[in-house]
Task: structure prediction
Amino acid sequence: MDDHGSATGSVTVIGAGYVGLVTAACLARLGNTVRCVDQNRPRIASLRSGKMPFSEPDLAELVMDGVAAGRLTFHTSLAAACRRAESVMVAVGTDEGGRWTDRHIRAVVESLLALPAVPPNIIIRSTMRPGGMAILNGIASAAGSQTHLYYNPEFTREGNAVADFMAPDRIVVGMALGAASVAAEPVRRLYKGIAAPMLPVDYATAELIKVGSNAFLATKIAFANELAQFCRSFGGDMEALRRGIGLDHRIGPEFLQPGLGFGGSCLPGQVDLLTEVASERQLTAHVVPAVARANRAQAHRVAEEILERQDSAVRVTILGLAFKAGTDDTRESPALRLIDALKQRSVRRIRAYDPLVRVIPDRPDVHVVADPYQAASGADIVVVATEWPAFGRLDWTSMAGLVSRREVYDARGVVDVAAATSAGFRVRSLVRQPADGAVAKDTSSAA
Result:
């Protein structure tokens, strides 16, 4: 934060999900008075008692600090929470069965426009489809409302959301065409105290900044997975290749780590969204659809490698279920795609462990246990599917006495190869490809 003082705005955040709760807690930390409202009564009751609905570093402390300071309160009544608010920020979910939807956003905006006193500023925080904000603005105009609609997309990463919010690369504010940059003042006031450039743009540009950013990151991941294939074919060092390419300031090393592909609630859905928009507009799009295809194919390619020289009776242990380390989120998880790919190849026995994921809703076929060594007991092959640092510190000597075969497939480049091989394990890796069984140099970094 800079030295310009604290924000002192009054804002209602609609939605106590991932984006909404992080936004509410961080805005309160900046000095704003924040009311967070959600129709999920059990969730609001839990938050009032100090229990978080999901795992995110530093969020629980931030929420408790905001509540203790009287700057953050939780509500279930939309009308009561929006009364006398200077701004209302909409942060409801847009994921429905793996597809993007604006159904909940529209419903909230229509409810706000129907209030006796319509909030003067409505800020959409949820991800918008290109062209969506213009439609919402048209709905407000048709209703005769004088409210100002803004689009303020978030660029936070799960597992690092609080830090990303408090120290962003930029703050994007989408406004109606022709609006002067001074019109962004209500949004600027909420972020007072954050030293980051604010970029006031038109609605369409803001929408495309959001989905374009995520599509580009997805492209880097898909490209890294293809480069890894070249490395494996020619005997190259993928980690050194990643460093060599990433040192180019035009490219950077982030998101160039090969693995099982990208997952979560943002990248897959937004890549598909851009593909749909291109089709609807009859645009010639080659790159984005190819990225989606490559990502879907990655789990099947890895499954084939895992089962190389194995029969269908193989017993597989999956270490890691969250789509990335630092979160308990399994939405569009590459680990689950891998499990599905293995099951399609008649693998009958799959046992799994994750440091935060204890159960997967609607997936009774995934047997989750509470300990990595218990998960590995009797396994023919252990697969590291999520880049949890703890998997780089596993006791492979103890593991050796539990497994049926000493086989490891490291899909994320975190295994201590020297320790595993000295314990008698054969280690195969997406990231490091030893030549003729030689031990590769151990590198434990992950994207």
Notes: The chain has two domains: 10-196, 213-437.
